[in-house]
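hey so i finally got around to running both of the ones u sent me last week. sorry it took forever, my laptop kept dying halfway thru and i had to restart like 3 times lol. anyway pasting them below in the order u listed, first the sequence line then the structure token line for each. didnt double check formatting much so if smth looks off just lmk and ill redo it

first one:
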Amino acid sequence: MAVNVRVPTPLRKLTGEQEVVQVKPGTIASAIAELEQRFPGISERLVDPAGQVRLFVNVYVNENDIRFLQGKDSPIQDGDEVSIVPAIAGG
């Protein structure tokens, strides 16, 4: 049983250039904790000191933005796909 996490290019240096990493089912919070355990330093790029997903990071579960689900408590199940998408600013 696994959930696929799609890692954006800027964070792949932390995952040994892996584009997709598998984590255990649970919640977005447990997935971030597992990623941090396996790839130290990745969580500080995803969550702020208060433990909230950073404003410039969008996280999707099967193409649904977690901000419109249950945030970090959004459940993830076997076969789900989590996408981490850094916001792109332009001007």
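and the second one:
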Amino acid sequence: MQKIIIDTDPGIDDAMAVLFACLSPGIELVGLTSIFGNVTTDIATRNAKVLVEMAKCDVPVARGADAPVQQEAKPVAWDVHGREGFGDVAAITPAGEPVDETAAEFICRTVSDNPGEVALCTVGPLTNLARALEMDPSIAGKVKSVTVMGGSLDAGGNITPSSEANIWQDPHAADMVFAAGWDVTLVGLDVTHQIKCTPEDFAGLAAKAPVLGGFLNEAVQYYFEFHRRVDGFNGCYMHDPSAVISIVQPDLFAVEHEPLRVIVEGEEIGRTVRAAGSDRPATSVCKQIDVDAVRKVFLETISNGF
């Protein structure tokens, strides 16, 4: 069973990813860390607690950074995920509180206590990972792996013509993560734009798992409307759950290995680019995905919930 910390800004597709991790028999979710992006860090922290309590998953939540490492904070994605993060679902107050540690402290301690065992999965901006590296650079040699949902090498952007939202929100942090000497896999728009779920898929989840599937079905309606309005299709991408699935079923993804950097200024700020000839370690960049299999893994796992 794979120990995973998910760094998250919930967020509708974050909810898909977190609930999948809570239900997956191959995952031991050891914690969530919150970050700004889809919503503010306050709302992300609250929503992370809501998700694990909803799934009856007893794991800690650590509050993350409020702002990027260097640049000024960008607007959060109200238009994509709704004011409270879960579309038109009203704000839910969790029963518990986040732990006293910051996200960076939690990451450093948990990784150091479990050397070689913990996979970090980021599905929001990479600020918390950058802060953890600043706090304790040795974690780069203790983490089992880092999986980043973000970036795009050849598929264009989703927040600007060249930049993906998670990287654009804190490009300096992302560049630090790609430069560090740890095992990084990038699950970006090159693959996540290949895989979609439909309204029928989520209606089926609601029928089979009324609590968790029903919640996702209610939340995702807002997401569907966004994609109908902006992208012209009736469904949603599986960005964040694909990243989690790639950790436990890497055989469903084909990768290329190349060093990466992030443009941190100018018109293309936030763009992820190849850094051939640099002394940076190679990143495993997902370029192909078994669409049907990944979609099936997600839907069947949530269907087995409650």
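quick thing i noticed on the 2nd:
DSSP finds twelve helices and twelve strands in the chain.
anyway thats it, ttyl
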